[in-house]
């Protein structure tokens, strides 16, 4: 059977759509796995790993309660957050590189997408006019203003090594292993982990499992939400975690991804290795969280400043070893 | 082969620089001492690797001296001093960790900018070593400036000396006599520091050097 251009295009579209659906499908499961492992580490039985699916289902069928003085912004923000996060997560190469829309999977674009979603949520947090939402928004923006420079420095150091900010090309260069031992990549990895912890509202920066602490950030912002709006926000949070896991896998351990020749074998290998990588990361995260204590709000600048310093050092080291 | 030589040297020299940053970041005195020991171990590994790739056996002696003296003897002695002075608590800094780290980054940028224009007939490795060594030296100085505790100032000085050794090994043809005499002068300096710390403490009941400022009349207290 001859392969017509139309058929290849359909295949490519299917591959891209598969990735979009894949990240959406595994996002609650990843969250469930981290919660389960956390609970086991704390000697609790914990909810089953598919609990986040049930929670989302329940929230989607509950009535959404709106504050009297909430504007249209309050209703739109959860969908905007979900959409931007989903697009970001679907663009990061997961099981294969050179997918149909991989030309748009630019690291800076993904950072910007996440920032857009965060902006919408911070506005919505202040919209209802409660004190809790306001304090949550202000702290979220503080963390963002500290985390984004560090993230951009990680982007720069990766881009200086690979010569591009497009994730697909970066992965295809790193996958060959021709880069060698680089201190810069190690430092960028460290900075990336710090930023990912802060951005995903995990311990030591924020506690994702509480509604009661005065120090909480993300949960304070979304305290007023209920029903389908809350479902969107929870799904976006899960997708964001998957996005950061995928970014980690794509930038620092891209091995096993399907490259140029796409057939059943390579795609299956890519899928299996991707799921294994995400599972390992979802195991490491709660172990790290259990080992450290939540820090005070005024320690955030030092924590994220460390990430910034590591990122900046990575870029500097690249300059010294590059310009010869 | 050339590539792996460079990569490992780059990794070790880079890790010394990173440990300098960790020294600046730490605010607990025992942790500072442990990081300092780690930096000395990284330094001795780096020197040993240079000895291997430059085919210069006398550098192995330098590596052994660095490992024994700065990786083991001095940190252990400092641990003893700290325990005898009873200062396991947090140490105070003149400026906070954030500005200190930013200043440190600026110093790294400065040393890279200084070394970059050096002419083309110098090997990549030597130039990189020189840039890293300069940064480590400057950050040792920065640590001596920003800390108020006499013991951490000593650590800053010793970390500065780590940078000197790194620079010396990167340049080919450093005679062994010079290296040994540098190592011994550091030991003697350390002994003098040790005596001084106890003298300061005897006189002022503290190792916070701000007490010295008051004593010299440079700072007037209203209390």
Count of helical stretches of chain B: 8
Strand content of chain B: under 5%
The biggest sheet of chain B amounts to: none
Mind describing the biggest β-sheet of chain A?
A: none
Please tally the β strands of chain B and state the result.
0
Low-confidence stretches of chain A: none
The best one-word shape of chain B is globular
Helix-strand makeup class of chain B: mainly alpha
Rg value of chain A:
20 Å
How many domains would you count in the coordinates of chain A? 1
Q: Please tell me what the overall shape of chain A is.
A: globular
Q: From N to C, what is the helix and strand string of chain B? A: HHHHHHHH
| Uncertain spans of chain B | none
Proportion of residues in helical segments of chain A: 55-70%
What does this entry look like structurally?
The complex is a heterodimer of chains A (324) and B (223). By secondary structure, chain A is mainly alpha-helical. Chain A has 11 helices and no strands. In chain A, helix 2 packs antiparallel against helix 9 (227-252). The longest helix of chain A has 37 residues, at 5-41. Chain B is mostly helical and 223 residues long. Chain B has one domain (2-216). Chain B contains 8 helices and no strands. Chain B is globular and about 55 Å long. Chains A and B meet through helix 7 and helix 11 of A and helix 1, helix 4 and helix 5 of B.
